[in-house]
Specification:
365 residues, alpha/beta, Rossmann fold, 3 domains, two-stranded antiparallel ribbon, 12 strands, 39% helix, disordered C terminus
Length: 365
């Protein structure tokens, strides 16, 4: 019989694990929004459940919380009852950010960016050449060298000379040291727009990308407000904007100090900010001016941009604001450094950073 037969569709009953994974994806987003506050995230989730009903009679919020504990995502302090994240959950948040912003990427064993250059490097290639004085002995191809000895001198009386030896060519791999600067000044949460959450999502995604796909690269993360300080990758979910001004100078000085200690020649700075520099530390005192662009602060900021240019450290600025006078500052800053600038909205921020990070891999060691 030709044609199609239609019957009533009966969906398959979801398994408890499927319910858990679905709720976990929502919970991860709320944890990022609440800067790792588990109690606040669970409270928001219960309110959303009441409004939209994404739990069921078979699997409720209580079941979800118990699974979070049993699976090792959260832990409860037996003394005061406080619930905190475990390292497993911190990794899950970073992986969630990676998939959301950069898409699903497969982990590679070497995790390096290939270049078109051969010669001195650390990865064995397929090409062979004659031995030269000074070559490392561990690069000698024993099989090829013994074959050459048999061909050149016969197999009856084995002899191996220098001209029999063959060296395995090594391939050069590009490595990059990146410092990511995140503005945590008060303006990152002003005017009804949450800019700090997308910024730390991008930071978590970039951190997970580098540690899984490019493990020989380095990523250091700096936050800057009135001062600048370095944070660890595990601290990113808890990052919050504070009652700070914007001391871009302090952030650049710390970034340059970190990169100065990195030995590989490919270095770069990514800076995510939504405003102009408004603060400068002189001795023990803070010099602040939030009105317009202060010439004193601007001069010091541009001086550091020029120093980075001399050190061949490009600065890529991601400005998540559209004010014309702020764009003028970014244009001047970028011209002095010979870097790049993106006037990004919050949705495009991750794609811009990923593309720029990939593009910088083409440099030769």
């Amino acid at each position: 019989m030709l044609g199609h037969r239609f019957r009533k569709y009966t969906p398959k009953e979801q398994q408890p694990n499927a319910d858990f994974q679905r709720l976990l994806s929502i919970f991860l987003q709320l944890l990022t929004l609440t800067s790792g506050d588990v109690a606040q995230a669970l409270d928001l989730m219960s309110r959303l459940d009441k409004q939209y009903g994404f739990t069921s009679d078979n699997y409720g919020m209580g079941d979800f919380i118990e699974d979070l504990k049993s699976k090792g995502y959260i832990q409860e302090n037996p003394v005061n009852g406080n619930i905190t994240l475990t390292p497993k959950m911190e990794i899950a948040i970073r992986r969630s950010a990676l998939e959301e912003i950069f898409g699903k990427l497969k982990k590679t064993r070497t995790g390096n960016h290939q270049t078109t250059f051969s010669g001195i490097g650390d990865e064995l290639g397929v090409d062979r050449r004659e031995f030269q004085f000074g070559d490392d002995l561990d690069k000698i191809s024993l099989t090829d060298s013994i074959r050459n000895a048999h061909i050149n001198h016969g197999i009856q009386d084995f002899q191996l000379f220098e001209n029999d030896l063959e060296i395995i060519e090594t391939e050069s791999k590009a490595q990059t040291s990146t410092v990511l600067m995140i503005d945590i000044s008060h303006s990152m949460i002003l005017y009804g727009e949450d800019r700090i959450t997308p910024a730390k999502k991008v930071a978590m995604a970039l951190a997970e990308l580098i540690t899984t796909k490019y493990p020989k690269d380095t990523l250091d993360i700096i936050v800057f407000g009135n001062d600048a300080w370095q944070i660890q990758i595990k601290d990113l979910p808890y990052l919050e904007a504070g009652p700070y001004h914007t001391n871009t100078v302090a952030g650049l000085e710390l970034a340059m100090d970190i990169l100065r200690r990195r030995k590989n020649p490919n270095k770069q700075i990514f800076m995510i900010t939504d405003g102009k520099p408004t603060c400068l530390k002189i001795g023990l005192k803070y010099y602040k001016n939030s009105f317009g662009i202060d010439r004193k602060i601007l001069k010091k900021t541009l001086t550091l941009a020029a120093q980075c240019r001399k050190l061949k450290i490009p600065i890529t600025t991601f400005m998540i604001a559209s004010d014309p006078y702020l764009r003028e500052f970014v244009r001047e800053f970028t011209a002095v450094n010979n870097g790049k600038a993106y006037y990004s909205n919050l949705k495009e921020l991750g794609n811009f950073i990923f593309e720029d990070f990939q593009r910088n891999k083409r440099k030769r060691l």
